[in-house]
Every structure is written in C-alpha cells, then in structure tokens.
C-alpha cells in the first residue's frame, strides 16, 4: 500500500510538472507581436475614440466608446457599416 501511494504521488507530481511545462511553452508571451499587420489607412470619424478592435477576412471592426461598431474594409480602409449598440 505504501508503494502504491508513493508511486501515485510521483506520477501526480510528474503530471503536474508536465502540465505547467506545456502551458508555458504553448501560450505566447504577452508582448508577442500580432500575427498580421494592421491597416494604416483607417481613419476614425472626428470625436470617436476606439475601445476595442477585431479583424476578419476582408474587414476590420472597431468598437468605440460611443457604443458603436464601425466596420471598415481592410484593403481600402473605407467605412462599410456602422452598428449602434443599444
């Protein structure tokens, strides 16, 4: 019984160390660069402040502090759509 408890302890410690090692190696660092270039030609309307940003295929969405989502074309930077958040 003593050997079983000791071997279980050793296996659990090794599993925990393996889990921590995988978390450290698999997650990128917080200062890692974004995997794509942000468009330089997007201009927000006057008086608008960006709060959040997301990107899809062919579009860029910016959430503003005015409770709006502005969707821009990623190639041209033209405003495609404005969504009001209620």
Could you characterize what this model shows?
With 86 residues, this protein is of the alpha+beta class. It has a single domain, classed as Thrombin, subunit H (Beta Barrel), CATH 2.40.10. It is built from one helix and four strands, in the order αββββ. The chain has one helix at residues 2-26; strands at 50-56, 59-64, 68-73, 79-84. Strands 1-2-3-4 form a four-stranded antiparallel sheet, with no helix packed on it. Strand 3 and strand 4 (79-84) form a beta hairpin. The protein is rod-shaped and about 70 Å long. It starts with a helix and ends with a strand. The mean pLDDT is 85.
Quick summary:
With 86 residues, the protein is of the alpha+beta class. The chain is 29% helix and 29% strand. It has one helix and four strands.
């Amino acid at each position: 019984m003593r050997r079983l408890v000791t071997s279980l302890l050793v296996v659990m410690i090794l599993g925990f160390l393996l889990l921590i090692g995988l978390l450290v190696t698999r997650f990128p660092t917080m200062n890692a660069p974004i995997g794509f270039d942000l468009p330089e030609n997007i201009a927000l309307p006057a008086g608008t402040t960006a709060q959040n940003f997301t990107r899809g295929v062919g579009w860029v969405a910016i959430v503003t502090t005015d409770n709006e989502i502005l969707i821009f074309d990623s190639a041209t930077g033209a405003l495609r759509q404005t969504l009001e958040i209620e």
